[in-house]
Amino acid sequence: MQHTNIILKDVNAVYDGPEGVLWELIMGEQIHVGGMSSSQTLANKAGIQKGMKGLDLCSALGAGCRFLVKYYGVNMAGLDGTKTMHQKAQERAKAEGLADKIEFKLGDVTAIPWPDNTFDFVWGEDAWCYVVDKEKLIKEAARVIKPGGVVAFTDWIEGHIPMTPEESKRVLDFMKFPYMESMDGYRALIKKAGLKIETDEYLFPEFAKYVELYLRMLTEQLTSDALKIIGDNMELFQAMGGEMMFMLEMAKAGKMDRCRFVARK
Asked: For 23-48, how does the pLDDT look when each residue is reduced to its tens digit (9 = 90+)?
């Protein structure tokens, strides 16, 4: 696992600025691979039921919370470390009439500001790759769920074929990830937190398919929209396209992947 010096303030700079708007343009406000279909699969595998109370860690625009409230009849809390995401999440929940069912807090996901045994489940979708201390995050997630509760998440991870140090640095620098965990690494962290793994899945080649989709959306359909977001900076647009093409190469080669985990306390 190659590590960079990227920390939360670097991630905040992305999601407080135009890059965050660009990712929403390409991926939708859920900002994770597979959108609603992926969320449904994760919720069903986790056994999410009406009346449960959940916590979304790295909740971004709050789309995951709103999805679960609307389609699974739960109550939610969301925790995110970016001010812009936190503000927009509150505004969008209010606009959809869901503010009374979702509590959003701005804070650190490795120091969750809720007591032990508060939630029936903890949720995460393609966002824990931004967290420096994933061990502490998962330990905290285990702390705040009730006995019998679940931690359910998807994330971007290292593929089954190792990247070279140069390849890894290029991906991490572009995506502003401190590092990408491996499948075995996540298994070890989950078990160390005292959780029993019920689902652990690689999501290759689905991951590569979606990276290709985002690249095509950017270069074939949404070019003018994307340029408007970044101030019509064609040089930056072409550079971002080049980095996304490189990510596609890594995904097709099995050097980048995505995982799905469900683990029970």
From this structure: 899 999 999 999 999 999 999 999 99
Other CB atoms within 10 A of residue 242 CB: 11
Q: What's the chain's length in residues? A: 265
196 inside domain: yes
Output the CA angle 50-68-102, nearest 5 degrees.
95
pTM recorded for the entire structure: 0.95
In a domain, 79, yes or no: yes
Instruction: With beta carbons less than 8 A apart as the criterion, state whether 86 and 80 touch.
Output: yes
CATH number at residue 51: 3.40.50.150
Query: What's the structural domain count of the chain?
Result: 1
Q: Which domain holds residue 50?
A: 8-15+44-204+255-264
pLDDT (tens digit per residue) in 131-175: 999 999 999 999 999 999 999 999 999 999 999 999 999 999 999
Task: Give a yes or no: residue 140 inside a domain.
Answer: yes
DSSP summary character for residue 264 = E
- For residue 113, say if its preceding peptide bond is cis, omega within 30 degrees of 0: no
Task: Tell me the three state secondary structure of residue 185.
Answer: helix
Chain segment 179-211, per-residue pLDDT in tens: 999 999 999 999 999 999 999 999 988 899 999
Distance CA 159, CA 181 (A): 10
In a domain, 176, yes or no: yes
First to last CA, the chain: 27
